[in-house]
Amino acid sequence: MRLSGGGVHGDGQVYAAPGRPPRGPAGERGEAPGAALLESARFLQRNRTVDFMLLFKALILGIVEGLTEFLPISSTGHLILAGDLLDFNDEKGKVFEVAIQTGAILAVVWDYRARFGAVARGLPHDPQARRFILNLFLAFVPIAVLGLLFGKVIKTNLFAPVPVALAFIIGGLVIYWAERRRHVIRVQEVEELCWQDALKLGFAQCFALIPGTSRSGATIIGGLFIGLSRKAAAEFSFFLAVPTLGMATLYDLMKHRELLSWSDLPMFGVGFVAAFVSAALAVRVFIRYVASHDFTLFVVYRIVFGVVVLVTAYTGLVSWTVH
What we know:
By secondary structure, this protein is mainly alpha-helical. It has 12 helices and 2 strands, in the order ββαααααααααααα. The protein has a two-stranded antiparallel sheet.
């Protein structure tokens, strides 16, 4: 997938960057003006179609990101699978999938703007506000360190449909086991977290480095293990997403900035807006759901979805990419 710049085909035919008609026989001196105009019109028509399909793919991936980021079903896993089906899995596509997380992040910031605002205002004098920030920092550190150390190896070996499907199934079984354990609640609200709890949740989040595991799922299940209520565990996973996904997005954009150009803005804009809207909806529905339900529904979804991917891979019904 190439969105900007020009070049030469293997047969010697020159092609142009988007926005400029191709140079070739129809544009050479002595050629009839009508033929040149016709060739330019054909080029523009083809270009519009390519742009439309690109924006459509960006819309679909943005919706997938927003709907799955804060549910215990793995947004990264879904994006890998969706990107593979849409043929949107090259290097720029991977950067796009990371970048549109900012839309999901801002959805959380917007939904919890009153709480974030209170924390910001209280930092100079409120011990509870300072503890909230300290807890987020401590929970962020483990995944930041391990991500820098092993991120490249993980992307090379595990960012493919079959490993994602296996992680879906294994993660579903872990959630099922966690739900069947005796759950003693000692932390009802996020504000009650101590720094030791935050650090434990940070290590739990590290399992999300394996695509298909789910960052929110790992954090929430880790919270259940150490005595958080479902609501407190879910909300802390939302808040922890802000530094975790924010820094991951900034790092990936800086690392791969040579792949990007100004012509990519519409694609990123569509994905960002789609992720923001769908994530805002998902967060509100999920918080209401976990207030009165367990995670059995997500267990069933993960296992069934993982099995479907494995069956289609090994029967050849879907030509999944194998890295």
